[in-house]
Amino acid sequence: MLLGLVACGGFERGDPSPDDMSGGDGDTSGDDDGGSSFASSVLPILMARCGSCHGSGGLAAGSAYHLSGDAATDHDTVLALVNVASPATSTLLREATGESHGGGAVIATSSDDYSTILAWITEGASP
Fold first, then answer.
1. pLDDT tens for each residue of 73-127
2. Is the full-model pTM beyond 0.70?
3. Does position 7 have pLDDT exceeding 90, yes or no?
4. By three-state DSSP, how is residue 67 classified?
5. How many helices, marked H, and strands, marked E, lie in the chain?
6. Where are the alpha helices (DSSP H) in the chain?
7. Which residue in 124, 116, 127, 110 sits closest to 27, CA to CA?
8. Closest CA to 22 of 101, 99, 115, 126
9. How far apart are CA 9 and CA 110, in angstroms?
10. Is 55 helix (H, G, I), strand (E, B) or coil?
11. For residue 110, how many C-alpha atoms fall within 13 Å in the half-sphere facing its CB?
C-alpha cells in the first residue's frame, strides 16, 4: 500500500480541478463517430493518467491493475473494473477519482477524461 502512495504521491486526494487534470492538449473525448472506443479513447487516458504507476516499470506494476499499453490485453484487465449496469459506480471510475485509491485522485469527475470513460462504460465498454 505504501508503494501506491509513493508512486502517485504527486496527486492530492479529493476532486482535482478539471484544469489541473486536463491531460494536456490532446483531445481524448471520443472517436470520430461520436462513440468511445477503448483503443482510441479510453486506453490513451488510462496510460496518461495511470500508466506511470500501473504501467510497465511503475511501482504498482505488480498489482492486479496493470496496463501494458496493448489494447486487447488491457481491455480485459480494465473490464474487470467496470460495471455496465451502473457505470458511475464502476471501480475504475471510483478509484480514478480517488475513492479507495492509495494514490489519490488522478481524474476529476468534471473532466473530459471522466466523461469519456463514463460514456465508454455506458455504451457497453466494448473494445
1. 999 999 999 999 999 999 999 999 999 888 899 999 999 999 999 999 999 999 9
2. yes
3. no
4. strand
5. 5, 0
6. 2-7, 43-54, 71-79, 91-96, 112-122
7. 116
8. 115
9. 22
10. strand
11. 7
Q: What is the pLDDT of residues 10-43, one digit of tens each?
A: 333 334 444 444 443 334 333 344 567 999 999 9
Gyration radius (Cα) of the chain, Å: 13
CA 66 from chain center: how many Å? 11
Rounded Cα gap, residues 13 and 20, in angstroms: 13
- Among 41, 12, 11, residue whose Cα is nearest residue 26: 41
* DSSP at 3: H
